[in-house]
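Pasting two entries for a bug report.
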Amino acid sequence: MSFLHPLLLIVALVVTAAAVHGYLWLQRRRSSALAAAGFASLVSRGSAVRRHLPYGLILLALPVLLVGLARPQAELTVPRVSGTVLLAFDVSNSMRATDVSPSRLAAAQQAATEFVEDQPDTVDVGVLVFGEQALLTQAPTDDHGAAVSAIGRLSASGGTSLGQAILVGLGTITGKPVALPEDGAPAPELGYWPSATIVVFSDGQETGGPDVEAAAELAAAAGVRVQTVGVGTARGATVEVDGYQLGTQLDERTLTTISQVTGGAYHPAGDAAAVSDTTKSIDLRLTAKKEPVELTAPFAGAALLLLMLGALLGTRWHGRIV
């Protein structure tokens, strides 16, 4: 236990000692007066308890209250939602499809914005975009307004590399570049980051880049869960790219595999409202952290209880508050 104002403990000791000394002095004077008057033999042990106990309770309340004023603190293990959430957005051409209204990307932006606004300030949120390459556009921060602004600036173009998104996400979390090991080489040592989560918003249509399952296995080894949100429909839609009409549909198998490998979950969403509802089911990790908790209130409550008990006994036994 520590105290914000430890000097008040000295004050508490001095004041309490003075109060006890004063009470004992008064009792000695009273006893001397009774003895001089020939009434000392009339004071029994039972009456002595009744006489001293109310005063004793009130005197005990004094140091308890003064210790509370010193603002004691103790470190307690407090469960809370905390850590890092990295939102990874597929910004490939297929995300311009309108089988989710107003478009796949716009629906993902809306849902992600609501998700960020719902998070406590103990959760740092970052934003990553990926097409054929991946780029961190907002480092993880407790400034959720900055994350929302980064989400609002997204636009779609190019292909899709889910594997690259996971690798860049791992690099952001671990603070160092992450790449898949070459054939026969050992996996890179990334440490263990159980309080970090990557949430991928994508239609799952992979067009190239690093092997996505191998990247997911690296994330799993580092303790990083990948939650995937499928944005699109099984019936699909067409988008125009360089004058060509290209068909695109939701690839749930790939997104499910990524999440399962890392211990996360796949969240299907077929329209804008469903995407928004889906993000509400994304589980963040509950961690335990030691935090200083001020104990002034319990000390003040104990002092008040002692004062009330002393006053009650004094009134009951002596007909007045002692």
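Entry 2 (this is the one that rendered wrong in the viewer):
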Amino acid sequence: MDAIKLAKNIVRKEIKGVINNMSQEEKVRQSDTVCKKVFDLPEFQSSERISIYLSTDNEINTFPILAYLFKIGKQVFVPKYNGKNMMMVRLHSLEDFDNLPLTKWMIKQPNDNNREDALKTGGLDLIICPGVAFTRTGKRLGHGMGYYDKFMNNYYKCETVINKNPHLIGVCFNEQIKDDIPTSESDVTLDKVISEN
């Protein structure tokens, strides 16, 4: 297990260095292309309840996806972190998004406890996942906290959403695609990974 952990950290460090060296213009250009590709996915078009992460500067910018989801009337859910766990809670509008507070990691996140929890109200049709590195076959390396893997493993066991498995889509820069990445048994495989290339 320690060998896998070490191997994962080496990949994380390598990718972080590569992304830090990318220009802002290049990040914007790739983000725009990836967002358009997401809009064209049949899984995206047919889904009603969609979860999306709220991006940082070193990730594909998901704001255009968020804005488009509200524009076309989809139900939007975003991550809310609580200790070592994550839940997906409802976001109602762009104004709601603008009013979200920032965490210590400089990520916008709901901090109130009266939001609709996706797992209690019918699950999700599609989850757009962040990550540090991906393979074309759907392997994903996260930031090391295991939030998404834990969330999905809990999702599959949750009785309120039985037989409703969401499509899992990773979005990333070209530079985040690797031929292979180290994974553990608890790591969830994605259905698709979308990059510019």
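Dev reply: Rendering is fixed now. As a check, the viewer should reflect this: Strands lie at 49-52, 75-82, 85-91, 126-129, 133-134, 140-141, 167-171, 192-194.
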